[in-house]
Amino acid sequence: MSQDRNALCCLILREQFGDLVSKIAKVLLKKGSCVLKYILAESALELKQVKKLLCLLIQHNIVTFHLNKKGLTEYTIHCDVIQWRLRFPRYIYCAKTLYGDAAELLVEDLLNKGQCLMSETVINITDKLNEALDASGHPRINAGLVKEKFENLAKTHFIQRCPNYIGKEVNDDSTVRQAPNEDELYMIPKMDIDGEVSRKRKRSTEGEVTPAKRSRTESREDQSEVPKDDGIYWRVNFERFHQHFRDQILVASAASKIDVKAGEVLRTFLRLCETKFSSATTTSCAMSVNEVFRALPKELFLTRHVLEMYMTMLCDDMNGMFTKVDEMSGGLYVVNFYKGLQEIAKAHLESAVQERFGSKCLRIFRVLLLKQHSKQKQIEDYAMISAKEAKELLYNMFSENFITLTEVSKTPDHAPSRTFYLFNVDIPQVARIVQQRCFKAVKNAMIRREAEVAEHKRVLDKKERVDAIVATLADSEQKEEIVQTISPPEQEQILKVKHTVRMLDLSETQIDDTLFVLQSYLQLSTQHNLENIAVKKKR
Questions:
Q1: Does the model's pTM come out above 0.90?
Q2: The domain containing residue 330 runs over which residues?
Q3: How far apart are CA 500 and CA 454, in angstroms?
Q4: What CATH code is carried by the domain that includes residue 304?
Q5: Domain for residue 537, yes or no?
């Protein structure tokens, strides 16, 4: 694991949870899986603190634990889950786009808490929505509506149950985790939720109650208010969101290559089979023309004949991403996610080559992508570049591992005069190089943003205090006097800092989009290689 990625993970945790959590994460990232005693020794923290911090990381699905061969509990940190915290706004917006405001608040609540009961989440979101509706004068809603959104998210696998935990004591006072049952991950518990009444209890003011009597009363109330779904915790299924993002990228690619209706045909196809296969598979399940035609939105006004024409165009123009596998039921089609993401990853890599080495290197890079193994003379002819310049450009890219060199000798002695030197592009290798540079770029952007805020902290704090005072005043003259306490140079400085921070946030988002494409491609590339090995073994 790269140092840049580890540093990025520590920065994210420090920004969201504080220095102590970042310290624990640094130990786990350095060591990998380790026991509690090692974490205590390396972090130099108290046992009580370490236990609380580990519980926090487990609550947010960042750390998991298991028993090793010696029977001790080992804790393992997951870099992917930490990195995905940068995409929280994207997950929330996706839920809002698909299912509305209630689903947006549900996903946001689960992301902020890590793990939560369905009943608690539904009632909390119902109370929030009703507070907003009361303030705007609209009628209140019932918890059944929010529960329906929760069920829709679980039905489409955007949220899932957490693994069950057994309270079995082991050597270091931890618990043992059961293996999750895939069939029960998305099963909604049968229960009625009354969302009209808030769960917050109001204390009685009739008469004085002694502390001992109050504690006994509250304990009985707590026991009576144990939710029916106690022990069934839910969390966000990040892989399902990533699957949706991947589908959106493929749909946008089809729409840009052909037209918008072709993109909608592909979107309908992917929506029909979105929960029928794992996100790690390289191809989708086969769907017939009849199924796609029945599921098409009516506003597209596509006839059966026009639909078949669009599916034929997708087969011809998408570089093997969309293929026909059988003639039954009017034709069976599948989507090859590996080939689709490979083409999109190539476009990102070409952009990186152009920005780093220039347009002439991009021409050479594209020649190698098209022709595969090529000699230097062939590259000079295809790219129309002089021999001296081509040699220099090839060496620049070769020195940074953007291209590879294969030696094919005519004789066993490998003499240079009797050896062919063939250049090639190893796409997964280049994707990993660009991925590491993306980690470093996001880390640098976060450090720069922290430095900007720290440098102008006094002015920003003053602006916050002024805004808070102005919000409490009703007189416009007093507001104007308070606002004028910030001088014009300070206002200009505040605007400049906000613009810089906004641009850095935007750069983090755009780099993360590139990271998502490259990571998805590398994951499918590994799976594709494993499938090829399995096929060869069967033969």
A1: no
A2: 239-335
A3: 13
A4: 1.10.10.10
A5: no
